[in-house]
Design a protein that fits this description.
The complex is a heterodimer of chains A (about 300) and B (about 325). Helix content of chain A is about 45%, strand content about 5%. Chain A is mostly helical. Chain B has helices spanning about 20-35, 55-60, 65-70, 120-125, 155-160, 190-205, 255-260, 270-285, 310-315, and strands at about 5-10, 40, 80-85, 95-100, 105-110, 135, 140-145, 165-170, 205-210, 215, 220-225, 225-230, 235-240, 245-250. In chain B, strand 6 (about 135) and strand 7 (about 140-145) form a beta hairpin. Classes of the chains: A mainly alpha (about 300), B alpha/beta (about 325).
Chain lengths: ~300, ~325
Amino acid sequence: MTGATFELPTELAIDTGIARRVIAEFIRGQLRQAGFERAVLGLSGGIDSGLVAYLVAEAIGPQRLLCVMLPYRTSSPNSRADAEEVIRQLGCPSELVEITPMVDGYFGAPETAGSPAARGTGEPDASQLRRGNFMARMRMAVLYDRSVTWGGLVVGTGNKTESLIGYTTLFGDNACAFNPIGDLYKSQVRQLAAAVGVPDAIIAKAPSADLWPGQTDETEAGFSYPELDRLLYWLIDKRRSPEELVAKGFPAGLVTWAVRAVAGAEFKRQVPPIAKLGPRTAGIDYLYPRRRPGSART
Amino acid sequence: MQPLTIALAQIAPRLGGFDENLERHHALLAEARGVGAGLVVFPELGLTGYLLQDLAGEVAIRLDDPRLAALAAETTGLSAVVSFVEESADHRLFIAAALLEDGRLVHVHRKLFLPTYGLFDERRFFAPGDLLRAVPSRLGIGLGVGICEDFWHLPVPQLLALDGAHLLINVSSSPGRDLAATNEVGLGTATSWRTLMRTYAQLTTSFVVFVNRVGVEESISFWGGSEVIGPDGAPVFSAPLYDEGLYPVQIDLTEVRRARISLPLLRDERPELEVREMERIVAERAGLARDATADPDAEPGLDVAPAAQSASVLRP
């Protein structure tokens, strides 16, 4: 067990034994049904991908998991060190793929010591948001390429909180073959991470997208995860109205912001709509399970 | 009356893999026979898997299917409940459970209540059954079979018991959800089911056999936790959550008599009262009788009266 301390709202506490059991079967089931024995994920050094690495290693054995570290030149060296510690503790295969040339090759980059400036599109002043989204999509592109070379499915590492408020990049970090922790709030991710033995330093540090030095989720968006998790739990899982949330004691401003964020991110959580024209259309009136006899890779 | 060994087949069927699942049923029937079982119970849609969607029509079988007859042929001196997609002669698809005994198919129950809410979408793909019957068994007792959601409706266990069932069987594909640590067993679904099944056993003073599948389909994990509950409402056996296995449980059927004489709830039921009051409620809902709990000015069959200024708009 861990000594890391974190705030876990009472109503969010889960039975971590059952969660580990369900998730391990889920991971094995997803791979088996697709005809795969291996998995690959992007390991950032944060708690979400760290936890998923532990869960996948627990489900199928560390030798079948490839952890890919995908830093950009501004990524924190501490993140890299935390990711390496996870790899060391799990004993799983790993790779380091710098995404700097890919990102700078597109946007352009200033000349740095000894190397010429990347020309790119000549937009070195592109916004942090554009850069962050582009980095997430470059990481996705690398992982899906490694999915082929490693012969494993890409495992998603996004949690329920960030999915609900839309704190993800469409076709970037939310792209995956399956996601074992997508129904766990950030506080529950911390609880489960502590139970499976994710290093204390990773559990205790402030969550960050690591897009620029010193950035953290909570300072950027102005919330604390335990409070936001509780709010979302009562709003989504327990079907309380915004008025009822305010009456329960949640700050009105946070409630308004969260309700808008959840509605505004609906499109990120769903498959894009197809214009209905023919007699039978995928997802509308052609409805098959993703995995059925004949659907596995042979 | 000899003690009865019930084998709970808490299996993980392969979605859409009928032949593979059928083979597994044959193997488990043999295994159950080996442990002296008199009754073997397989979970809901154990022959097909649960989240079939448009696969339902592709794995459906008729009651005269030779594969079902071959499975029945394995039940000499044995009773077995198996579940599959049944296609009727007029091509409706049902979620069905069949009682096989001594080489024959002796009873079919078609799922009555098809959950189509939350994570369920059954009514889109299946037709609901219209019959509920207790059935006499070679075991010397009456059996009552229901499928999953059927037992989330109060009349079902009661009707089966009143119709002569001593042992109620529920076969399920229940998806586990709500992992709140505050629950009895760490899983909200398991707590709900256990509460219901124990209550039914006690109120109908019958044995209740609950067989739930395990395994993963798409996002859903089925939680197992199959149980046998005595006619006093106390569990006789609880299978582990999520573990696949064939679990033999021995029960003493004479406990039903003892329970029903010491706690004669079933004797004291008032079916004629229920029928009268149900007929009244149905008539009120259909607008054929005045509904005492509706707004005084409500149209027959409706329970809310329109606001005064809009009343004229509704009139033809």
